[in-house]
Amino acid sequence: MIRILGKSSSINVRKVLWLCVELGISLDQEEWGSGHRSTQEPEFLALNPNAMVPVLLDGPLVLWESNTICRYLAARHDRQDLLPAAPAERALVEQWMDWQATELNNAWRYAFMGLVRHSPEHKDPVQLAGSMANWHRHMRILEDQLSRTGAFAAGAQLSLADIVLGLSTHRWMSAPMERPELPAVRAYYERLCERPGFRLHGANGMP
Fold first, then answer.
1. pLDDT in tens, 159-200
2. Ranges for the GST N-terminal domain (predicted)?
3. pTM for this one?
4. What is the DSSP string of 34-81?
5. pLDDT of residue 206
6. Most buried among 46, 93, 110, 166, by the most CB within 10 A?
7. Under a CB-based contact definition with an 8 Å cutoff, are residues 160 and 75 in contact?
């Protein structure tokens, strides 16, 4: 059986858990991370020198980076609806996955740490305001894309792009801050909430 190492509250672990519901597969999850077994243990560092969750183990294969894990699982189960085989269609899905990891995540990091995690190192009001403004700016980019597709990030049907963006959207919707009204994003969130896997691992009360 596939093993996933990572605590259930991690946003990056949750995207993998949601995907497994969509794929209809089970896995053996082990809780690693703050509050559980330390990712600084030599056993974990031998698998992922970054000391980050999740880590996927499939026989001899060891994978880290949650979006890569999602790509692997979709391809392993030949789910071309989630990760198309055609180069152009696949590139559109992966474009939004990469944007989530490199652009959107960096925008919200300071605000999330200050507002949700209450980190004393993330309380500067100027930096907080700047991070929130940047977070909203990036969500407006998603708003424009969803207004064009009328449904999901890369088109008319759910894809891996929505697995990763759905968790980020939930984080934006649940953060204790004022948000601009983005009707396409709100409709998107409600659409995702119709999916059992998202309700279980995405919109489950965890930020």
1. 999 999 999 999 999 999 999 999 999 999 999 999 999 999
2. 1-81
3. 0.95
4. TTSB-TTSHHHHTT-TT--S-EEEETTEEEESHHHHHHHHHHHTT-TT
5. 85
6. 166
7. no
